[in-house]
Amino acid sequence: MSDCDALVIGGGVSGLTAAAYLARAGLRVIVAEVRNKLGGACESIPFGESFHAPLTQTLYALDPRMVKELKLNLKFAVRDMALAGLRADGKHIVFSRDGAARSIAVHSQADAKAWKRFRRELFSLARDMRALWWEEGTLSVSHERLEPFRRLSAAAFLDSWFESDALKATLAFDATETGLSLFEPGSALPLLWRASQEMCGLQGAVAAFAGGPQSLVQALLEATKVDIRTGASVSRILIAGGAVAGAELVSGETITAPIVISSAARRRTLNELLPTGAIGFARADSMDRALAQTGTAKVVLALSALPMFGGVPTTGRFVLAERLESYAAAHSAARAGRLPDELILEATTPTAADSSLAPIGQHLLIASVRPVPLAMNDETKARLAVKVIAAFTRHVPGMHVVASEVLTPEEISSRYGAQDSKMNIAQTLASWDERLRTPISGLMLCGENVVCGRAGRIAAAMAIRDKT
Amino acid sequence: MSLRATPFHARAAAANRGNDWLARNGVTLARVYDDANEEALAARFRCALTDISWRWRVMLEGPRVVEFLGRLVTRDVSQLVPGEALKALWLSDGGGVRGVGAIARYGKETFLLISAASDSGWIARAASRFDVGIREIGEGGLALIGPHAGAILQAAGIDFTLEPLALRKTFWRGLDVTLSRFGEHGGYEIWCDADDGLVVWDRLMRAGAPFGLQPVGTQAMDILDLEAGIARPIRDYAPARDGDAKTPTPKSLGLEKLIDASHEAFNGHGAYLAMQETRTLLGLELDSVALAPFTPLWYNGQIVGHTLTSLYSPALRRAIALAQIEIFASRPGTQLAVTLSPSAENPAFCNVTARGTGLPFLPAPLQP
Question: What gap in Å lies between CA A365 and CA A361, rounded to an integer?
């Protein structure tokens, strides 16, 4: 008799969702979370008293079916964040759902005309991709139209539509999340992927929860009653006869289970937790080659007043990037271990819509800076904070920074278990089977390419179906 | 720039009357010293000395070396005691044969892998996952093959009592050498420091003179290999080099006996079990002296496979070949037809009959 019917590694959104669905199917589930807190990337960054600085400021891919089926009680602070590009010349560009063309026309009449066609084309391509990402088993849909995107870079894709730097550089930021350079073949796919997701029923929307992303974790915990063990660090996954048999914890305790669903990153699960070489030497090598060489740093600033950027809604997200070429320069600097001269970042002021995140009268500005080197020493971290502050005080001269905190990509991945691999372009157009199954029978993944919760729901469904 | 030669090159050059050379694994070797058929017969019925320094050898060392080899090769090495060896394959993730070789245990945490073809990239990358050190060995090696091999070693002053698939380090009148029996032909191998190569060659040739010992080239050894039914990498098949390759399959090369299917940890195990190979390795005796390498095989009016290497066997006095053939046509004694390509002697296509034969064609040279 096993200790449980299914073991879930990791108590982030994906892991908890998988656990919830397994428990709904009547399985005895244990969740092993390495930290003493649940939530993973949805946790708050420790930052002063009575501040709640969410590590993940924006959500763009919450699975609506999961919200419905698990009856999650969620409140949104912002339902459709506008994307804005902050420009050095003060001519900020705002991509709101309705008024984008007017803002674009300031930079280029031609682009303003192309915008509507671009949106239509992008969303239409994205709908083709939804077949691959939304539900399990809808693979009969042809994705021939997407095939050329395997070789298309985000830079070439945007160049083919637009002429103005303001527009291209702002839109391009979303493509860099995956660790790919904008000039790498296939880097246009992440843009489609983003567009194929939706929040609150709006395609391509970006939202924020009231109370920060931690409230999603709370809602999940209320919706599901499973055995959750915090401080339980899995040291290795056990195999017997080619199938998964459970896991051993650092404490020496063993948890036997015929199903193991890991929300740890693919490479960590397959190359580090499984016995060395268990998945095949060639596969292990190809995963090691896909290690990201650059990452995203978080810079949190506590401010005494809400910063206002002329004409830009404060509940939006602000991208700072002058030209597409700035991305190339930043990428090569970051790969070489240097801080880029011109930082590229996305920032939000979550307190604009949700005052519960900071003491009264104070505000938070959180910047995701990428690409940056994976590791930074204290001196570089301090320099990064200074550069981020300087970038914003240019737009808001009187901005008063009360406190600041920097998290390097390495710190984020070691503390919160974020993934350390580049997005695998082949996986973007793969089936769920390829994304979630492993060569070890009974072992599933649900932590890669986090589509908030959906990977967990589908991994659980596959595991249950395999068992019966 | 000088020739990439083995430690025995000076002696080989002196003995190579036809000046007939080839390169194998990057080193120059005598292909034929005088007459390949005569050399092959000498190895079978008297005694022959051949340079095997071209074989790829790596020393694997580290606390996790047993775990590593357990993953790498198709048989369990953990039961070997120092001085023992076994033969095994290593497969790609897809189950294709990447290599075949002997794995010998030198010590608790030290093993030697010896193979006919190098696969250093794959093995080095895999070894690094287990923190296993890998070091290529460049010492010289000579094989003594034939019924008198033991007697010659005794005459030369080396204790030759050694089981097959075993090795022993020994001190031989001032030289440190290793005596092993990894070869397929029942003989002995002597491994020595490169600087001692010529001394070892001279001592063996002197001790072997009363027995008619002669150096033989790679062509004669190929004949012996073929008579023993061994498919060799490069010569007979291209080893899997892509990590996911599914071919060549172990069964199509007659190598499945080197796989212990109950040893389930090895790379490619799942893919190997799932394989549905319909071909197997068969010997062919041709009713001709003309050779038929890499030629289609006919059976009841359909093509059922093809030949691999084909050579003239002086012991059987006919051309023989290895063949990959559908299992239903692989029963020994089956009559098959081979189409010979035009040659200078016979400038037209012609069909000859061939008979399927169990492998090996001939047993290894006898040891008295």
Answer: 14
Distance CA B362, CA A117 (A): 77
* Separation of alpha carbons A62 and A18, rounded Å: 14
Bridge-partner residues for B86, per DSSP? B103
- Dihedral angle computed from the Cα positions of residues A170, A174, A176 and A179, in that order, rounded to the nearest 10 degrees: 160
Residue A284 near chain B (CB below 8 Å): yes
Give pLDDT tens digits for B220-278.
Answer: 999 999 999 999 999 999 999 998 999 899 999 999 999 998 888 899 998 999 999 89
The boundaries of every CATH 3.30.1360.120 domain in chain B are 9-53+138-215
- Inter-residue contact B66 to B131 (CB < 8 Å): no
Backbone angles phi, psi at A291, to 5 degrees: -60, 135
Q: Is A458 helix (H, G, I), strand (E, B) or coil?
A: helix
- Contact at 8 Å (CB) between A350 and A212? yes
H or E stretch including B68?
Answer: helix B65-72
Distance (Å) from the C-alpha of residue B94 to the closest C-alpha of chain A? 9
pLDDT at A37: 85
Q: For residue A53, what is the DSSP state?
A: E
Torsion over CA: B183, B188, B193, B195 (sign): negative
pTM, rounded to two decimals: 0.85
* Chain B contact for A280 (CB, 8 A cutoff): yes
**Does position A247 have pLDDT exceeding 70, yes or no?**
yes
Q: What are phi and psi of B249, to 5 degrees?
A: -80, 150
Side chain identity at residue B140, one-letter code: G
Angle value at C-alpha B106, between B139 and B81, nearest 5 degrees: 150
Candidates 3.40.50.1820, 3.20.20.370, 3.30.1230.20, 3.30.1360.120; CATH matching B9-53+138-215: 3.30.1360.120
Question: Which residues of chain A are within 8 Å of residue B70 when distances are taken between CB atoms?
Answer: none
For A390-404, letters b (16+ CB in 10 Å) and e give ebbeebbeebebeeb
> B248 preceded by cis ω (within 30°)?
yes
Q: Which of A236, A244, A270, A281 to mutate to test the interface with B (most CBs of B within 10 A)?
A: A281
Taking CA–CA distances from A239, the nearest residue in chain B reads B265
Interface of B with A in 120-149 (CB under 8 A): 122, 125-126, 129-130
Which among A5, A8, A138 has a CA at the least distance from the CA of A457? Answer: A8
Question: A397 or B179: whose pLDDT is higher?
Answer: B179
Omega of the bond leading into B233 within 30 degrees of 0 (cis): no
CA A354 vs. chain centroid, Å, equals 21
Residue A425 predicted with pLDDT over 80: no
CB distance from A252 to chain B under 8 Å? Answer: no
Q: Which of A152, A186, A190, A184 is nearest to A171 (CA)?
A: A190
Domain covering B278-357: architecture: Beta Barrel (2.40)
| Joined tokens for residue A340 | 């880029």
What domains does chain A contain, in order, with CATH numbers?
6-75+210-290+421-467 (3.50.50.60), 117-205 (no CATH), 292-415 (3.30.519)
- Number of helices followed by number of strands (H, E) in chain A: 16, 21
**From CA A326, how far away is CA B63, in angstroms rounded?**
48
